[in-house]
Design a protein that fits this description.
This protein is mainly α. About 50% of the residues lie in helices and about 0% in strands. It contains three helices and no strands. The chain starts with 20 loop residues before the first helix and ends with a helix.
Length: about 100
């Protein structure tokens, strides 16, 4: 019996459960929504950097425009759909 086998040397903390990729994406969407609310109250143009605009060429806009939301209910609906479908996809294919 080595020293690592003794009861006082064992890790008593609960095993870490990894956060699913779906939870990360939902959290990021909610974070951007809150950031947008804060920016609107400060009259800053946060959305201008994310909206797909034909007059400017910003490569990230091809991805970020899909994650913008018109309001709370739009965000809630998208997050619920993402949560349900994301859980199914992660069960089938595993987390990213």
């Amino acid at each position: 019996m080595g020293i690592g086998d003794r009861a006082y040397m064992r890790d008593r903390s609960a095993p870490r459960v990894p956060i699913s990729m779906t939870a990360w994406v939902v959290g990021i969407l909610v974070g951007f929504f809150i950031l947008n609310l804060i920016q609107e109250s400060a009259h800053a143009d946060f959305l201008g950097w994310m909206v797909l605009d034909e007059n400017t060429l910003r490569p990230w806009q091809w991805l970020t425009h899909a994650f913008l939301h018109e309001g709370f209910w739009h965000l809630l609906g998208n997050c619920l759909i993402l949560w349900w479908t994301g859980a199914t996809v992660e069960q089938e294919h595993g987390p990213a």
